[in-house]
Amino acid sequence: MSSTVTTPEPDQPCEEDKYLHVTFNPELYLQRQQWILEVLRANRVSSVLDIGCGGGALLSCLLEPAQTTDTEPLETEPALNIHLDLHLKEVAGIDVCLESLVSASQHLLSPSRLENSSEKREPWQPAHFRWESLTAKLWHGSLDSFNPEFVYDARTGTGYEAIVAQEVIEHLVPEVLDKFAPVLLGLYRPQFLLVTTPAYDFNARFTAPGIEDPRAFLDPTNRTERRFRHDDHKLEFTRAEFHDYCVAAAHRFGYTVTIEHVGLPQEQDPYADLRDVGAATQCALFVLSNLPLLPAPIPTLPTPPTLHCDRFFPAHPSLPLESAEILGLIGEGLTLLKGDSADLHTLWYFAEGVSVACAGSLSRLVGAVRGEPDNWELTPAASSRWWDAIVRWKAFVPLSIDDDLAAPRPSDWENDSTASWTMSDPPAWSDAEEPSADPAIDDPPPTDSATTGPGSGWDDEPMSGDHGSSWPATIFTADPAYPANASSGGDWSTSDLEPVRA
Protein backbone atom coordinates (compact mmCIF):
# COMPACT_ATOMS: atom_id res chain seq x y z
CA MET A 1 0.00 0.00 0.00
CA SER A 2 1.50 3.27 -1.03
CA SER A 3 0.88 6.74 0.36
CA THR A 4 1.18 10.12 -1.25
CA VAL A 5 3.08 12.89 0.53
CA THR A 6 1.88 16.40 -0.30
CA THR A 7 4.64 18.98 -0.44
CA PRO A 8 4.28 22.76 -0.63
CA GLU A 9 4.41 24.40 -4.00
CA PRO A 10 7.78 25.95 -4.82
CA ASP A 11 8.42 29.27 -3.10
CA GLN A 12 5.40 28.71 -0.80
CA PRO A 13 6.23 28.66 2.95
CA CYS A 14 5.21 25.70 5.09
CA GLU A 15 2.42 26.30 7.60
CA GLU A 16 4.85 26.63 10.51
CA ASP A 17 6.90 29.17 8.55
CA LYS A 18 4.02 31.50 7.69
CA TYR A 19 4.02 33.38 10.99
CA LEU A 20 7.37 34.72 12.12
CA HIS A 21 8.67 35.13 15.65
CA VAL A 22 9.51 38.78 16.31
CA THR A 23 10.96 40.04 19.59
CA PHE A 24 12.60 43.26 20.79
CA ASN A 25 15.27 43.71 23.41
CA PRO A 26 14.76 46.06 25.18
CA GLU A 27 11.03 45.80 24.66
CA LEU A 28 9.55 48.14 22.10
CA TYR A 29 7.77 50.44 24.53
CA LEU A 30 11.04 50.93 26.41
CA GLN A 31 12.82 51.82 23.19
CA ARG A 32 10.20 54.46 22.48
CA GLN A 33 10.54 55.77 26.02
CA GLN A 34 14.30 55.94 25.66
CA TRP A 35 13.99 58.01 22.50
CA ILE A 36 11.55 60.43 24.17
CA LEU A 37 13.64 60.87 27.31
CA GLU A 38 16.88 61.27 25.41
CA VAL A 39 15.36 64.05 23.31
CA LEU A 40 13.98 65.82 26.40
CA ARG A 41 17.30 65.54 28.23
CA ALA A 42 19.39 66.63 25.26
CA ASN A 43 17.32 69.79 24.91
CA ARG A 44 17.24 70.58 28.67
CA VAL A 45 13.46 70.77 28.61
CA SER A 46 11.86 72.23 31.75
CA SER A 47 8.15 71.57 31.10
CA VAL A 48 6.34 68.70 29.36
CA LEU A 49 2.73 68.08 28.29
CA ASP A 50 1.76 64.46 27.58
CA ILE A 51 -1.07 64.37 25.02
CA GLY A 52 -3.14 61.19 25.40
CA CYS A 53 -1.44 60.37 28.70
CA GLY A 54 -3.60 57.32 29.41
CA GLY A 55 -2.80 55.67 32.73
CA GLY A 56 0.19 57.94 33.27
CA ALA A 57 3.18 55.66 32.85
CA LEU A 58 5.21 58.37 31.10
CA LEU A 59 4.06 60.90 33.70
CA SER A 60 5.15 58.61 36.52
CA CYS A 61 8.65 58.67 35.05
CA LEU A 62 8.63 62.43 34.58
CA LEU A 63 7.50 62.92 38.19
CA GLU A 64 10.66 61.27 39.52
CA PRO A 65 12.95 63.98 40.91
CA ALA A 66 16.39 64.67 39.53
CA GLN A 67 19.13 63.05 41.57
CA THR A 68 21.00 66.33 42.00
CA THR A 69 20.58 70.02 41.27
CA ASP A 70 23.58 70.02 38.97
CA THR A 71 23.01 71.01 35.35
CA GLU A 72 26.59 70.97 34.06
CA PRO A 73 29.20 68.18 33.96
CA LEU A 74 31.97 68.26 36.54
CA GLU A 75 35.38 69.24 35.22
CA THR A 76 37.22 66.06 36.05
CA GLU A 77 39.18 63.72 33.83
CA PRO A 78 37.07 62.20 32.46
CA ALA A 79 34.22 64.62 33.10
CA LEU A 80 31.53 63.40 35.49
CA ASN A 81 28.17 63.54 33.72
CA ILE A 82 26.09 64.53 36.72
CA HIS A 83 23.84 66.80 34.66
CA LEU A 84 21.90 64.28 32.57
CA ASP A 85 18.69 64.16 34.60
CA LEU A 86 15.70 66.22 33.58
CA HIS A 87 15.09 69.26 35.79
CA LEU A 88 11.37 69.71 35.20
CA LYS A 89 9.31 72.50 36.71
CA GLU A 90 5.95 71.76 35.07
CA VAL A 91 4.42 68.43 33.96
CA ALA A 92 0.91 67.84 32.66
CA GLY A 93 -1.17 65.19 30.96
CA ILE A 94 -4.48 65.22 29.13
CA ASP A 95 -6.71 62.35 28.07
CA VAL A 96 -10.26 61.97 26.80
CA CYS A 97 -10.80 58.82 28.89
CA LEU A 98 -11.81 59.63 32.45
CA GLU A 99 -11.04 56.10 33.69
CA SER A 100 -7.47 56.44 32.45
CA LEU A 101 -7.12 59.76 34.27
CA VAL A 102 -8.23 58.10 37.51
CA SER A 103 -5.30 55.71 37.10
CA ALA A 104 -2.91 58.49 36.13
CA SER A 105 -3.96 60.58 39.12
CA GLN A 106 -2.73 57.85 41.46
CA HIS A 107 0.83 58.57 40.30
CA LEU A 108 0.36 62.19 41.36
CA LEU A 109 -1.57 61.69 44.56
CA SER A 110 -0.15 58.42 45.86
CA PRO A 111 0.84 58.61 49.56
CA SER A 112 3.77 56.31 48.74
CA ARG A 113 5.62 59.37 47.44
CA LEU A 114 7.38 60.23 50.71
CA GLU A 115 9.95 62.60 49.30
CA ASN A 116 11.65 64.91 51.79
CA SER A 117 10.09 63.07 54.72
CA SER A 118 11.70 63.50 58.13
CA GLU A 119 10.77 59.96 59.15
CA LYS A 120 13.55 57.53 59.92
CA ARG A 121 14.51 55.10 57.16
CA GLU A 122 16.09 51.69 57.21
CA PRO A 123 19.79 51.52 56.23
CA TRP A 124 18.95 49.64 53.01
CA GLN A 125 16.57 52.39 51.90
CA PRO A 126 18.24 55.14 49.85
CA ALA A 127 17.55 58.74 50.79
CA HIS A 128 14.89 60.02 48.40
CA PHE A 129 14.75 63.80 48.11
CA ARG A 130 13.29 66.28 45.69
CA TRP A 131 15.73 69.16 45.32
CA GLU A 132 13.61 71.22 42.91
CA SER A 133 9.89 71.95 43.13
CA LEU A 134 7.48 70.60 40.51
CA THR A 135 3.86 71.33 39.58
CA ALA A 136 1.86 68.51 37.98
CA LYS A 137 -1.64 68.68 36.47
CA LEU A 138 -4.03 66.27 34.80
CA TRP A 139 -6.69 67.49 32.37
CA HIS A 140 -9.81 65.79 31.04
CA GLY A 141 -10.62 66.70 27.47
CA SER A 142 -10.14 66.07 23.79
CA LEU A 143 -7.22 67.06 21.62
CA ASP A 144 -9.41 69.49 19.72
CA SER A 145 -10.52 71.32 22.88
CA PHE A 146 -8.30 74.39 23.12
CA ASN A 147 -6.66 75.07 26.50
CA PRO A 148 -4.89 78.45 26.82
CA GLU A 149 -2.71 77.03 29.62
CA PHE A 150 -0.95 74.86 27.04
CA VAL A 151 0.26 77.78 24.90
CA TYR A 152 4.03 78.10 25.24
CA ASP A 153 5.63 81.50 25.70
CA ALA A 154 9.41 81.40 26.19
CA ARG A 155 9.46 85.02 27.38
CA THR A 156 7.12 84.45 30.29
CA GLY A 157 7.85 80.77 30.88
CA THR A 158 4.16 79.88 30.63
CA GLY A 159 2.73 76.90 28.80
CA TYR A 160 4.74 73.78 27.97
CA GLU A 161 8.10 73.77 26.27
CA ALA A 162 7.68 70.22 24.95
CA ILE A 163 4.58 68.26 23.96
CA VAL A 164 4.71 64.47 23.63
CA ALA A 165 2.18 62.46 21.59
CA GLN A 166 3.29 58.88 22.05
CA GLU A 167 1.30 56.29 20.07
CA VAL A 168 -1.68 58.66 19.85
CA ILE A 169 -2.08 59.85 16.27
CA GLU A 170 -3.03 56.39 14.96
CA HIS A 171 -6.10 56.36 17.25
CA LEU A 172 -7.60 59.64 16.08
CA VAL A 173 -10.80 59.72 14.06
CA PRO A 174 -10.44 61.68 10.79
CA GLU A 175 -12.07 64.87 12.06
CA VAL A 176 -9.72 65.02 15.08
CA LEU A 177 -6.69 63.96 13.05
CA ASP A 178 -7.26 67.00 10.85
CA LYS A 179 -6.75 69.19 13.93
CA PHE A 180 -3.71 67.36 15.35
CA ALA A 181 -1.00 69.51 13.80
CA PRO A 182 -3.04 72.74 13.66
CA VAL A 183 -3.79 72.62 17.39
CA LEU A 184 -0.46 71.32 18.69
CA LEU A 185 1.83 73.27 16.35
CA GLY A 186 -0.41 76.13 15.27
CA LEU A 187 -2.01 77.07 18.59
CA TYR A 188 0.14 75.71 21.42
CA ARG A 189 3.47 76.51 19.67
CA PRO A 190 5.76 74.36 21.84
CA GLN A 191 9.50 74.57 21.31
CA PHE A 192 9.46 70.81 20.72
CA LEU A 193 6.80 68.31 19.62
CA LEU A 194 7.64 64.60 19.88
CA VAL A 195 5.45 62.14 17.97
CA THR A 196 5.71 58.34 17.81
CA THR A 197 3.45 56.03 15.83
CA PRO A 198 3.57 52.48 14.40
CA ALA A 199 5.13 52.06 10.97
CA TYR A 200 2.68 50.26 8.72
CA ASP A 201 5.49 48.86 6.55
CA PHE A 202 6.71 46.81 9.52
CA ASN A 203 3.46 44.81 9.77
CA ALA A 204 4.68 42.59 6.95
CA ARG A 205 7.53 41.45 9.21
CA PHE A 206 5.21 39.21 11.24
CA THR A 207 4.42 36.86 8.34
CA ALA A 208 5.99 35.38 5.28
CA PRO A 209 5.44 37.34 2.04
CA GLY A 210 1.90 37.09 0.73
CA ILE A 211 0.47 35.74 4.00
CA GLU A 212 -2.37 37.64 5.67
CA ASP A 213 -1.97 37.87 9.45
CA PRO A 214 -5.20 36.73 11.16
CA ARG A 215 -4.39 38.82 14.24
CA ALA A 216 -4.53 42.08 12.30
CA PHE A 217 -7.62 44.32 11.99
CA LEU A 218 -9.17 45.80 8.88
CA ASP A 219 -9.11 49.57 8.59
CA PRO A 220 -12.30 50.57 10.47
CA THR A 221 -12.61 53.83 8.51
CA ASN A 222 -12.81 51.96 5.18
CA ARG A 223 -10.37 54.47 3.68
CA THR A 224 -7.97 51.64 2.84
CA GLU A 225 -7.90 47.87 2.69
CA ARG A 226 -4.99 47.74 5.12
CA ARG A 227 -4.85 45.60 8.23
CA PHE A 228 -3.68 47.28 11.42
CA ARG A 229 -2.00 46.12 14.62
CA HIS A 230 -4.91 47.01 16.89
CA ASP A 231 -8.69 47.18 16.60
CA ASP A 232 -8.76 50.82 17.69
CA HIS A 233 -6.28 52.08 15.07
CA LYS A 234 -7.84 54.46 12.59
CA LEU A 235 -4.73 54.68 10.41
CA GLU A 236 -1.15 53.48 10.27
CA PHE A 237 1.31 55.55 8.22
CA THR A 238 3.83 54.01 5.88
CA ARG A 239 7.27 55.53 6.23
CA ALA A 240 6.77 57.61 3.11
CA GLU A 241 3.34 58.83 4.23
CA PHE A 242 4.59 59.79 7.69
CA HIS A 243 7.52 61.67 6.18
CA ASP A 244 5.25 63.64 3.87
CA TYR A 245 2.75 64.39 6.64
CA CYS A 246 5.44 65.67 9.01
CA VAL A 247 7.25 67.77 6.40
CA ALA A 248 4.00 69.40 5.30
CA ALA A 249 2.98 70.18 8.92
CA ALA A 250 6.41 71.57 9.74
CA HIS A 251 6.35 73.84 6.68
CA ARG A 252 2.83 75.04 7.42
CA PHE A 253 3.43 75.97 11.05
CA GLY A 254 7.03 77.18 11.09
CA TYR A 255 8.93 74.13 12.37
CA THR A 256 11.78 71.95 11.27
CA VAL A 257 11.33 68.19 11.60
CA THR A 258 13.63 65.21 12.01
CA ILE A 259 12.32 61.69 11.52
CA GLU A 260 13.88 58.65 13.17
CA HIS A 261 12.96 55.00 13.65
CA VAL A 262 13.25 52.65 16.63
CA GLY A 263 12.43 49.01 17.16
CA LEU A 264 14.53 46.57 15.17
CA PRO A 265 13.77 42.92 15.97
CA GLN A 266 16.38 40.61 17.42
CA GLU A 267 15.69 38.03 14.74
CA GLN A 268 16.92 38.30 11.19
CA ASP A 269 14.15 38.57 8.60
CA PRO A 270 14.35 35.36 6.56
CA TYR A 271 12.82 37.26 3.65
CA ALA A 272 15.05 40.33 3.89
CA ASP A 273 16.14 39.88 0.27
CA LEU A 274 12.51 40.27 -0.83
CA ARG A 275 11.41 43.25 1.28
CA ASP A 276 12.52 46.18 3.40
CA VAL A 277 10.15 46.54 6.35
CA GLY A 278 12.29 48.91 8.41
CA ALA A 279 11.69 49.43 12.15
CA ALA A 280 8.49 49.02 14.15
CA THR A 281 8.07 52.63 15.31
CA GLN A 282 8.63 55.94 13.55
CA CYS A 283 9.44 59.05 15.58
CA ALA A 284 9.26 62.71 14.62
CA LEU A 285 10.87 65.64 16.43
CA PHE A 286 9.45 69.04 15.49
CA VAL A 287 11.54 72.05 16.55
CA LEU A 288 10.19 75.60 16.46
CA SER A 289 12.13 77.72 14.00
CA ASN A 290 12.07 81.17 12.49
CA LEU A 291 10.17 79.91 9.49
CA PRO A 292 6.99 81.88 8.83
CA LEU A 293 3.72 80.54 10.17
CA LEU A 294 1.20 80.10 7.39
CA PRO A 295 -2.08 81.51 8.77
CA ALA A 296 -5.10 79.26 8.60
CA PRO A 297 -8.35 78.94 10.57
CA ILE A 298 -8.10 76.31 13.29
CA PRO A 299 -11.59 75.48 14.56
CA THR A 300 -11.69 73.82 17.99
CA LEU A 301 -14.42 72.65 20.30
CA PRO A 302 -16.05 75.44 22.33
CA THR A 303 -15.66 73.55 25.64
CA PRO A 304 -12.12 73.66 27.04
CA PRO A 305 -10.61 70.74 28.96
CA THR A 306 -11.37 70.56 32.69
CA LEU A 307 -8.75 70.18 35.40
CA HIS A 308 -8.98 66.66 36.81
CA CYS A 309 -6.39 67.05 39.59
CA ASP A 310 -3.10 68.75 40.37
CA ARG A 311 -0.31 68.58 42.91
CA PHE A 312 2.62 70.71 43.95
CA PHE A 313 5.80 68.88 44.92
CA PRO A 314 7.92 71.17 47.14
CA ALA A 315 11.69 71.23 47.09
CA HIS A 316 13.65 70.04 50.11
CA PRO A 317 14.32 73.02 52.40
CA SER A 318 17.96 72.13 53.09
CA LEU A 319 20.73 74.73 53.18
CA PRO A 320 24.32 73.83 52.25
CA LEU A 321 26.86 73.24 55.00
CA GLU A 322 30.53 74.17 54.97
CA SER A 323 32.98 71.83 53.27
CA ALA A 324 34.47 70.71 56.60
CA GLU A 325 31.04 69.62 57.83
CA ILE A 326 30.35 67.76 54.58
CA LEU A 327 33.66 65.93 54.86
CA GLY A 328 32.87 65.08 58.47
CA LEU A 329 29.62 63.40 57.40
CA ILE A 330 31.43 61.51 54.65
CA GLY A 331 33.98 60.37 57.20
CA GLU A 332 31.22 59.11 59.49
CA GLY A 333 29.68 57.23 56.60
CA LEU A 334 32.98 55.56 55.68
CA THR A 335 33.55 54.64 59.31
CA LEU A 336 30.21 52.87 59.44
CA LEU A 337 31.03 51.20 56.13
CA LYS A 338 34.36 50.10 57.65
CA GLY A 339 36.42 51.19 54.66
CA ASP A 340 38.51 54.12 53.50
CA SER A 341 36.58 54.58 50.23
CA ALA A 342 33.15 54.37 48.62
CA ASP A 343 31.61 55.31 45.30
CA LEU A 344 29.60 58.51 44.97
CA HIS A 345 26.34 56.62 44.64
CA THR A 346 26.80 55.01 48.06
CA LEU A 347 27.77 58.27 49.72
CA TRP A 348 24.95 60.23 48.06
CA TYR A 349 22.14 57.81 48.83
CA PHE A 350 23.23 55.88 51.92
CA ALA A 351 25.74 57.95 53.93
CA GLU A 352 23.70 59.70 56.59
CA GLY A 353 22.94 63.35 55.83
CA VAL A 354 25.54 63.84 53.07
CA SER A 355 23.19 64.82 50.23
CA VAL A 356 21.22 67.12 52.54
CA ALA A 357 24.42 68.80 53.72
CA CYS A 358 25.19 69.49 50.05
CA ALA A 359 21.64 70.84 49.46
CA GLY A 360 21.33 68.44 46.53
CA SER A 361 24.45 69.64 44.74
CA LEU A 362 26.83 66.80 43.99
CA SER A 363 29.36 69.33 42.71
CA ARG A 364 29.47 70.71 46.27
CA LEU A 365 30.42 67.27 47.58
CA VAL A 366 33.09 66.87 44.91
CA GLY A 367 34.36 70.38 45.60
CA ALA A 368 34.74 69.60 49.31
CA VAL A 369 36.74 66.46 48.52
CA ARG A 370 38.97 68.14 45.96
CA GLY A 371 39.52 71.08 48.31
CA GLU A 372 41.39 68.82 50.76
CA PRO A 373 43.87 66.93 48.56
CA ASP A 374 46.10 66.01 51.50
CA ASN A 375 43.33 64.02 53.18
CA TRP A 376 40.86 63.20 50.42
CA GLU A 377 40.99 61.87 46.88
CA LEU A 378 38.44 61.58 44.05
CA THR A 379 39.01 58.99 41.33
CA PRO A 380 36.56 59.27 38.41
CA ALA A 381 35.43 56.02 36.87
CA ALA A 382 36.72 55.23 33.40
CA SER A 383 33.12 55.24 32.17
CA SER A 384 32.51 58.85 33.32
CA ARG A 385 29.37 57.66 35.11
CA TRP A 386 29.32 59.86 38.16
CA TRP A 387 27.98 57.23 40.54
CA ASP A 388 31.01 55.00 39.90
CA ALA A 389 33.59 57.64 40.89
CA ILE A 390 35.44 56.75 44.09
CA VAL A 391 36.00 58.99 47.11
CA ARG A 392 38.92 57.89 49.33
CA TRP A 393 39.74 59.18 52.81
CA LYS A 394 43.50 59.07 53.11
CA ALA A 395 43.41 59.62 56.87
CA PHE A 396 40.95 56.80 57.49
CA VAL A 397 41.65 54.80 60.65
CA PRO A 398 39.63 51.59 61.14
CA LEU A 399 37.76 51.26 64.40
CA SER A 400 39.28 49.01 67.02
CA ILE A 401 37.22 46.06 68.16
CA ASP A 402 36.15 47.91 71.30
CA ASP A 403 35.24 51.03 69.33
CA ASP A 404 33.37 48.95 66.80
CA LEU A 405 31.26 47.31 69.48
CA ALA A 406 30.44 50.71 70.96
CA ALA A 407 29.61 52.32 67.63
CA PRO A 408 25.94 53.01 66.91
CA ARG A 409 24.23 50.32 64.90
CA PRO A 410 22.13 51.32 61.88
CA SER A 411 18.95 50.71 63.89
CA ASP A 412 20.08 53.48 66.28
CA TRP A 413 20.54 56.11 63.57
CA GLU A 414 18.47 59.20 64.15
CA ASN A 415 18.51 62.05 61.69
CA ASP A 416 15.50 64.17 60.92
CA SER A 417 16.92 65.09 57.52
CA THR A 418 16.74 61.56 56.11
CA ALA A 419 13.91 60.28 53.98
CA SER A 420 11.52 57.44 54.49
CA TRP A 421 11.23 55.71 51.19
CA THR A 422 9.15 52.57 51.22
CA MET A 423 9.06 49.91 48.57
CA SER A 424 5.29 49.94 48.63
CA ASP A 425 3.04 48.98 45.76
CA PRO A 426 1.39 51.79 43.86
CA PRO A 427 -2.39 51.88 44.21
CA ALA A 428 -4.21 49.41 42.00
CA TRP A 429 -5.36 50.70 38.65
CA SER A 430 -9.05 50.98 38.01
CA ASP A 431 -10.54 47.72 36.79
CA ALA A 432 -12.87 49.79 34.69
CA GLU A 433 -10.09 51.45 32.74
CA GLU A 434 -10.88 51.35 29.07
CA PRO A 435 -7.93 50.86 26.76
CA SER A 436 -7.56 53.73 24.36
CA ALA A 437 -4.61 52.47 22.38
CA ASP A 438 -2.56 49.60 21.07
CA PRO A 439 -2.13 46.72 23.49
CA ALA A 440 0.00 44.96 20.97
CA ILE A 441 2.33 47.91 21.04
CA ASP A 442 1.64 50.15 23.97
CA ASP A 443 0.06 48.65 27.09
CA PRO A 444 1.79 48.35 30.48
CA PRO A 445 1.71 44.87 31.91
CA PRO A 446 -0.06 43.13 34.74
CA THR A 447 1.70 42.63 38.04
CA ASP A 448 1.70 38.86 37.70
CA SER A 449 3.56 38.92 34.41
CA ALA A 450 6.73 36.88 34.55
CA THR A 451 8.20 38.59 31.52
CA THR A 452 11.60 40.00 32.29
CA GLY A 453 13.41 39.33 29.06
CA PRO A 454 12.94 40.58 25.52
CA GLY A 455 9.42 41.39 24.39
CA SER A 456 7.71 40.04 21.34
CA GLY A 457 6.52 42.30 18.61
CA TRP A 458 2.78 41.68 18.77
CA ASP A 459 2.56 40.07 22.16
CA ASP A 460 3.86 42.17 25.01
CA GLU A 461 3.89 45.85 24.21
CA PRO A 462 2.11 48.41 26.42
CA MET A 463 -0.84 50.48 25.32
CA SER A 464 -0.36 53.93 23.94
CA GLY A 465 -1.92 55.63 26.87
CA ASP A 466 0.58 54.07 29.24
CA HIS A 467 4.08 54.89 28.28
CA GLY A 468 7.11 53.32 29.81
CA SER A 469 10.52 54.88 30.26
CA SER A 470 14.33 54.80 30.30
CA TRP A 471 17.41 52.58 30.54
CA PRO A 472 19.84 50.67 32.76
CA ALA A 473 22.08 53.64 33.51
CA THR A 474 19.18 55.70 34.79
CA ILE A 475 16.70 53.03 35.81
CA PHE A 476 15.16 53.61 39.20
CA THR A 477 13.19 50.54 40.19
CA ALA A 478 11.82 51.44 43.59
CA ASP A 479 8.28 50.40 42.94
CA PRO A 480 7.18 47.03 41.57
CA ALA A 481 5.63 46.57 38.16
CA TYR A 482 2.41 48.38 37.47
CA PRO A 483 -0.91 46.58 37.81
CA ALA A 484 -2.68 45.61 34.66
CA ASN A 485 -5.08 47.56 32.55
CA ALA A 486 -8.30 45.96 31.49
CA SER A 487 -7.77 44.78 27.96
CA SER A 488 -9.93 44.64 24.86
CA GLY A 489 -10.06 42.37 21.87
CA GLY A 490 -6.82 43.64 20.43
CA ASP A 491 -4.61 42.72 23.40
CA TRP A 492 -2.49 39.72 22.54
CA SER A 493 -0.31 39.56 25.64
CA THR A 494 1.50 41.51 28.34
CA SER A 495 4.91 42.74 29.49
CA ASP A 496 6.66 44.12 32.57
CA LEU A 497 7.06 47.82 33.20
CA GLU A 498 9.01 49.46 36.01
CA PRO A 499 9.01 53.15 36.87
CA VAL A 500 12.26 54.80 35.92
CA ARG A 501 13.93 58.10 36.55
CA ALA A 502 13.57 60.84 33.99
CATH topology of the largest domain: Rossmann fold
Task: Detail the poorly predicted runs.
Answer: 2-10, 409-454, 459-501
Span between termini: 71 Å
Q: How many domain units?
A: 2
CATH architecture of the largest domain: 3-Layer(aba) Sandwich
Radius of gyration: 26 Å
- State the name of the first-level CATH class of the largest domain: Alpha Beta
Provide the β-strand percentage band.
5-15%
H-E string:
EHEHEHEEHEEEHEEEHEHHHEEHE
* CATH evolutionary superfamily of the largest domain: Vaccinia Virus protein VP39
Roughly what percent helix?
Answer: 10-25%
Number of strands: 15
Largest sheet entry: 8 strands, mixed
Structural class: alpha/beta
Q: How confident overall, as mean pLDDT?
A: 78
Label the overall shape: globular
Helical segment tally? 10
* Spatial strand order of the main sheet: 9-10-6-5-2-3-4-11
Explain what you see.
The protein starts with 22 loop residues before the first strand and ends in a 46-residue tail after the last strand. Helix 6 packs across helix 9 (362-370). It is built from 10 helices and 15 strands. Helix content is 20%, strand content 15%. It has 2 domains: 15-313, Rossmann fold, CATH 3.40.50; 323-412. The chain has an 8-stranded mixed β-sheet, sandwiched between helices. It is an alpha/beta fold and 502 residues long.
Give structural attributes.
3-stranded antiparallel sheet; 10 helices; Rossmann fold; methyltransferase; disordered C terminus; disordered N terminus; alpha/beta; 502 residues; 8-stranded mixed sheet
